[in-house]
Amino acid sequence: RVRLQVQSVDKPLYRGTYHCFQSIVRQESMLGLYKGIGSPMMGLTFINAIVFGVQGNAMRMLGADTPLHQFLAGAAAGLIQCVICCPMELAKTRMQMQGTGEKCASRKMYRNSLDCLIRIHRKEGVRGINRGMVTTVIRETPGFGVYFLTYDTLSRALGCDSDDGYIIPKLLLAGGMSGMASWISTYPVDVIKSRLQADGVGGANRYDGIVDCVRQSWRREGWRTFTRGLTSTLLRAFPVNATTFATVTLFLMYMREDADSMKDCEAMRPSLQHSSL
Questions:
Q1: How many C-beta atoms lie closer than 10 Å to residue 120's C-beta?
Q2: Is this model's pTM higher than 0.85 or not?
Q3: Which of 35, 163, 197, 277 lies in the 20 to 30 Å Cα band around 127?
Q4: Structural domain tally of the chain?
Q5: What is the mean pLDDT of the chain?
Q6: How far apart are CA 195 and CA 72, in angstroms?
Q7: Residue 26 lies inside a defined structural domain of this protein
Q8: Domain containing 237: what range?
Q9: Is residue 270 part of a domain?
Q10: Nearest-angstrom CA–CA distance, 142 and 72
C-alpha cells in the first residue's frame, strides 16, 4: 500500500497491486513483503487494547446505546490510540521504503523498526517521531467512529445473538465490512499521511506540510492519487478486521456468560446455607 501511495507519477515502479506484489517478490524475495512488520507487531496489541478499552468505557459514560454514541465512542478511541499509531506507522513506512527494488540493500539506514525510531529521534527529536500526527488524527478519529458504527449497525441487522448457530460467519462479515467502510471513509487522508511520513527518505524533503502535499499531489497526479493503494488496503482490511471483531465479540460474550453463571451461584448460596440449617 505504502509503495503505491508514494511512488513517483513520472517514473512509477508499479502498475497496480498485483504488479507491486510480483515486483517485490522478484526483486527483493519473499522477505520484501514483510519489511516493516516489526513495528505493527510491537504496537497493534497495545492499540487494540486501547481502542476496545476506551470505546467500551466511553459507551458506558455516554449511557444510551445509540448510533451517535457508537460513533462518538469509536472516535474517542481512535483519537487516543494515535499516540502509539503515528510513531508505529512512521517506522513501518520508513522500513518499507528502505531498499526499494533491491534484494540486498547496499546501504541500510535502519536495522529494524526500533532502530528506525531511535535514529529519527536523535536527528529530529520528539517532533520527528510524531511526523504525520495531524493527518493520523484526522484519519483515525472519524475512521474509528465509522468503524464501530458500521459494526454495530451490521451486527444488529444480521441478528448476531449468542445462541445463533451462524454467529461466527455473521460476526466475520460484520467485522470485515466495518473495516472496509472505515478505510474508504478516510483513505485520501491516509495517502497524504504516507507521503508526509515517507518524505525525505533518500533525499530532500518535497512537501512543506499537509496543504502543500495535497496541492502538489492534486496538481501533478489528479484526484486518482488519493485512491492509490486502495485495492490492496481493502483486500487486507476485510480478513484482518473480520478476525479482530469476531474474536473480541466472542470473548466478551463468553466472559459475560461466565460472570452471569457466577452471580447465579452466589445467589444460590444463601438458600443452600438456610436449607442446611
A1: 22
A2: no
A3: 35
A4: 1
A5: 82
A6: 28
A7: yes
A8: 2-264
A9: no
A10: 9
